Structure formats: structure tokens, C-alpha cells
């Protein structure tokens, strides 16, 4: 029989213990911030007195507002970017601007400040010098708040030992330092937000407790979270994806269009739309540019693409769904077969992957330090499988799926594993989907009306692209729309666009955020959305 002392604590007791621990942690955090604010205020008061007695006070201090209100025009070429500071800069006088990432005083005669600019960091040293740096200046530097924006004039030196914790292996010997924008006490530390799970676990095993910044805290303080090296890398990679997408398609004879996001009906059908009042008329936000990019083809544009906002009112609380995302969309005339669209998909994405691997090495490395991932495996010529072949692979592996239904998330992942094992690729196309699981504007197959001229594209076992040949015959289009429960009057102008002669055509749409998430092996799409919008979040 167990004694009272040996019995495990009750759930209520554990709950109370957790609440008490959270309360104590919040109390300590509040105390830490108050102490920081008091220390900063004390340093400011002390400096105000010291400045009156310091003959070198012109070499440091807070920049007055009127000096940063575009008072004078200066030659910007005299500024040097932190990322450009290398060994070749030795003995050069430089002027840099960046954030005070860390500040450390060493006695009264020396202070170190690590300056960060767009992910690059350099160590700057303020040492007491008779004609340039006073003790009061060192004290001012030591009293700077983290993340304040500062200007530094100094001379570059190359230390004999490796500098740990900075990207640039040089130092700047400070001659002048001015604070352009003073940062308040931070709700989260950038160092904490930049740590990997592996670092935190390793510290725990060593008996050291490091702060883990959870996702909601990050998103609530997104402006600070975006400053981490990983996030700097993620959104530069995202920018590159959009740029490569545009450049590749322009080189293939496409041109860019901009379609309306306010529409009278739902562009995809169904109820998952954001409805609104448009001057007394019912309207909604576009779920995709689908209908209008097809209308552009009917207007003899031939080959078009768009990069723009997409809105979905689905209550999807998953790692890969958002209510608003950036869509990369394409539409093109087809001469004979919908494989022409798949040809573009394959070459486009191989170009994107090749270019990212070549031009974003530093960014990918920064992402990998915080969120380790294996480089994406893909083939020079993109693998294509029919939907029936994919179903058969799953069946052969003992996975039962509906041969005429859509694949669920689990089946998609399993098929991705099987494809990787058999073909050595994590990027492939699955085509000829059952017609019943595709949108109303999808063209049925010529040889079996139960299937369609459609395709999905997968990365690491997750779907990123949905595409197809479109129905360009108005009578068939109206029939398909009614079968899918769409009121014809809401898409009458769309159907009418095909009554005056429409070429066979097809296209696809892909979410930019999802491409970056899967290429970088990230576990949540909110990491690749600048300011995510999901069913629970509409701010910041």
C-alpha cells in the first residue's frame, strides 16, 4: 500500500502547480523589464550630467528629431553596408548604420556593441582615446538599449583571432556613435527567437534553461520575430521565388495581368468565400483569379500569369492552410494536349529550385541553422504519374483508398514516400484525376468521362499545385456548373465570354507561401507568411 508521500500529485494539484509556475515566470519577466527600464533611465540621467563636463560630447549622443527629418541631402555612397565589411576593408574609415544587437561593457574604458544590418553582424569597439572617445562616451554606449538603431563612424581592423557570434570577421574601432532611434524594452529577445529546438534541448540536458518563444508569441510580436536570421532568409527566398516565376514566364512568351479581387459570385463554387456588401449588391473576395484569367485567354492574350492575393474563408486549422495567401497563377492556350501545361510546370519549378540552390546559399544556410532540413530531391525532368498509377502504388503498399475519390493528407504523404523510394524524387506530377473531385470548369477526359484532364503537383508529399485543361465550350460549362451547385446567374458574364469563340486552354495555381514552406522543409505555413491570416488571426 502506498503512503501519502509516494502517491503522485492529483491533476488538480499539477494544474495549480503549472499555474503558479506561469504566474511566477510572468512576475519575474515583469520585474526584469522594470529593472531594465530603471537602469536605462538612470543611465540617461547620468549621461545628461556627464555631457556638460565632456569636451568630446559631440562624438556621441541621441540624434535630434530635426536632424532626421530630411534636413539635408547627403551623398549616400559614403555609407558602407555591414555585409560589405571584409579583410580588404582594413584601415578604412567607414560609416555604418544598424541595430545594436548586443552591448557589453568591459570596465569603464571599453564597450563592445554588435551591430546588425539585414542579417549581417559586425563587432564594434569603443575604447577610451584622448581625442575621440571619452569615458562618458563608453558609458553612453554601454547604456544603449538592444535593437536601437545607431550610426557608427570608425576604422576597420582585422583581429588576430576568430570573432565568434558575428558574420563579419573584422572589427570597427569606434570614433563616433549616434543613436538614431531608441528601442523600448523588448517583449521578446531576438536571441531567444533565433534559437533552434536543438539548441534548447541541448541546454536542457546540460541543466541550463533557455527561453523557447512559441509561435503565437512570435506572431504577436512579428516585427521583432522578422529580424531573426532565419526569417530574413525565408522572406528573401520567397522574394526570389516570385522573381524567378515572373522572369521564367516572361521568357516563355507570357505576360502579367491583374484581375479583380471583388467579384459577384464565388470563383471556385462552394460556401468558403468572404462575403460582403458591394454598394447594395452581394459580392465576395475572389478565391482565385481563375475565371478572369480564362476570360483574358478569350480576349486573345495567349499566355498570361498573375501574382496576387487569394482569399479562402475555410475553417482549416492546419499547418498548411491560410485564409489569405499569395497565388502564383498561369493560364495558356493549348494546341493539342494538356501535357503542354505540365511541360511548363516541370521546367518552371526545376528552374526555381536550381536558381534558389545557386543564388540563395546564405539564406538557405540561415534557415537551416534554426530549422534544420534536407535539401529537396528532384529530377531534371519532372516525373509524371497518372492518378490510377498513384492509387495502385498505394494499394500495393497496403493502403486502401477510394479509386474515384480525392487523396487525403495521409494518403498524399504515403504516396510521396513511395515515390521517393521508387523514383528518388520529392517533386512529381499526378494527373488524370477523377472528374468528381475537380472544379466545374475542368475538362473531362476524351476516353473516360469519369476522369479529367487535370493534375496536382507535390513537394515532400504535400500538394502545392492544382491545374487542368479548362472547359471552353459554353454549353458544357453551364452543365458542369449546375452539376456543382453553382447558380448560373452569378457566373453569366464568365460563361458568355466563351460564346464568341474560345481557344482550348489550361493553367494552374500555386500558393507562394506553400512553395517556400515545402522547399525549406518547414513545419508550418505561418513561418512563410509575412503577417499570417488564418481563422483565428487577423492582426498584426
Automatic annotation (TrEMBL):
Alphabetical list of InterPro entries matching this protein: Aa-tRNA-synt_II (IPR004364), aa-tRNA-synth_II (IPR006195), aa-tRNA-synth_II/BPL/LPL (IPR045864), Asp-tRNA_synthase_2 (IPR004523), Asp/Asn-tRNA-synth_IIb (IPR002312), NA-bd_OB-fold (IPR012340)
EC numbers, comma separated: 6.1.1.12
Catalytic activity: tRNA(Asp) + L-aspartate + ATP = L-aspartyl-tRNA(Asp) + AMP + diphosphate
Listed GO CC annotations: aminoacyl-tRNA synthetase multienzyme complex; cytosol
Biased composition (Basic and acidic residues): 22-37
Positions of the Aminoacyl-transfer RNA synthetases class-II family profile domain: 235-532
GO BP annotations listed: aspartyl-tRNA aminoacylation
Keywords: Aminoacyl-tRNA synthetase, ATP-binding, Cytoplasm, Ligase, Nucleotide-binding, Protein biosynthesis
GO molecular function: aspartate-tRNA ligase activity; ATP binding; RNA binding
Domain of life: Eukaryota
Group of enzyme by EC: ligase
Region (Disordered): 1-63
Cell compartment(s), UniProt: Cytoplasm
Primary residence: cytoplasm
A matching Pfam family: tRNA-synt_2
Family note: Belongs to the class-II aminoacyl-tRNA synthetase family. Type 2 subfamily.
Listed HAMAP family: Asp_tRNA_synth_type2
Protein name: aspartate--tRNA ligase
Organism: Prunus persica
Amino acid at each position: 500500500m502506498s503512503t501519502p508521500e509516494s502517491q503522485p500529485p492529483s491533476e488538480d494539484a499539477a494544474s495549480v502547480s503549472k499555474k503558479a509556475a506561469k504566474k511566477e515566470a510572468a512576475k519575474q519577466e515583469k520585474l526584469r523589464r522594470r529593472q531594465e527600464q530603471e537602469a536605462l533611465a538612470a543611465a540617461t540621467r547620468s549621461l545628461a550630467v556627464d555631457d556638460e563636463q565632456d569636451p568630446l560630447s559631440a562624438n556621441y549622443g541621441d540624434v535630434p528629431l530635426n536632424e532626421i527629418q530630411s534636413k539635408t541631402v547627403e551623398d549616400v555612397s559614403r555609407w558602407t553596408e555591414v555585409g560589405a565589411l571584409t579583410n580588404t576593408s582594413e584601415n578604412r574609415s567607414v560609416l555604418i548604420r544598424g541595430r545594436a544587437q548586443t552591448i557589453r561593457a568591459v570596465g569603464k574604458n571599453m564597450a563592445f556593441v554588435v551591430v546588425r544590418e539585414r542579417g549581417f553582424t559586425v563587432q564594434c569597439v569603443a575604447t577610451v582615446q584622448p581625442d575621440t572617445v571619452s569615458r562618458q562616451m563608453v558609458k553612453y554606449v554601454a547604456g544603449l538599449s538592444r535593437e536601437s538603431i545607431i550610426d557608427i563612424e570608425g576604422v576597420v581592423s582585422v583581429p588576430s583571432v576568430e570573432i565568434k557570434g558575428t558574420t563579419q570577421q573584422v572589427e570597427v574601432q569606434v570614433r563616433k556613435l549616434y543613436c538614431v532611434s531608441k528601442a523600448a524594452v523588448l517583449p521578446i529577445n531576438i536571441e531567444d527567437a533565433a534559437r533552434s529546438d536543438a539548441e534548447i534541448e541541448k541546454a536542457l540536458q546540460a541543466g541550463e534553461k533557455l527561453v523557447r518563444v512559441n509561435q503565437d508569441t512570435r506572431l504577436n510580436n512579428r516585427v521583432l520575430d522578422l529580424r531573426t536570421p532565419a526569417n530574413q532568409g525565408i522572406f528573401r527566398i520567397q522574394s526570389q521565388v516570385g522573381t524567378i516565376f515572373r522572369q521564367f514566364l516572361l521568357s516563355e512568351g507570357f505576360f502579367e495581368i491583374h484581375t479583380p479581387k471583388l467579384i459577384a459570385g464565388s470563383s471556385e463554387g462552394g460556401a468558403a468565400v468572404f462575403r460582403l456588401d458591394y454598394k447594395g449588391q452581394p459580392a465576395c473576395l475572389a478565391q482565385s483569379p481563375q475565371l478572369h484569367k480564362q476570360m483574358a485567354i478569350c480576349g486573345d492574350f495567349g499566355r498570361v500569369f498573375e501574382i496576387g492575393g487569394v482569399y479562402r474563408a475555410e475553417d482549416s486549422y492546419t499547418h498548411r492552410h491560410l485564409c489569405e495567401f499569395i497565388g502564383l497563377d498561369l493560364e495558356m492556350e493549348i494546341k493539342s494536349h494538356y501535357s503542354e501545361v505540365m511541360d511548363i510546370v516541370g521546367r518552371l519549378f526545376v528552374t526555381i529550385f536550381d536558381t534558389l540552390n545557386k543564388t540563395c546559399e546564405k539564406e538557405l544556410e540561415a534557415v537551416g541553422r534554426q530549422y534544420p532540413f534536407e535539401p529537396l530531391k528532384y529530377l531534371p525532368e519532372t516525373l509524371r504519374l497518372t492518378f490510377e498509377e498513384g492509387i495502385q502504388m498505394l494499394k500495393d503498399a497496403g493502403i486502401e483508398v477510394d479509386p474515384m475519390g480525392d487523396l487525403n493528407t495521409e494518403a498524399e504523404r504515403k504516396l510521396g514516400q513511395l515515390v521517393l523510394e521508387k523514383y528518388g524524387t520529392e517533386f512529381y506530377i499526378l494527373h488524370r484525376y477523377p472528374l468528381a473531385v475537380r472544379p466545374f470548369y475542368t475538362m473531362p477526359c476524351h476516353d473516360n468521362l469519369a476522369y479529367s484532364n487535370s493534375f496536382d503537383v507535390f513537394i515532400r508529399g504535400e500538394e502545392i499545385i492544382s491545374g487542368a485543361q479548362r472547359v471552353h465550350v459554353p454549353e458544357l460549362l453551364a452543365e458542369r456548373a449546375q452539376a456543382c451547385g453553382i447558380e448560373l446567374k452569378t457566373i453569366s458574364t464568365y460563361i458568355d465570354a466563351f460564346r464568341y469563340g474560345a481557344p482550348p486552354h489550361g493553367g494552374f495555381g500555386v500558393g507562394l507561401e506553400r512553395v517556400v514552406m515545402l522547399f525549406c522543409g518547414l513545419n508550418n505555413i505561418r513561418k512563410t507568411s509575412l503577417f499570417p491570416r488564418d481563422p483565428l488571426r487577423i492582426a498584426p
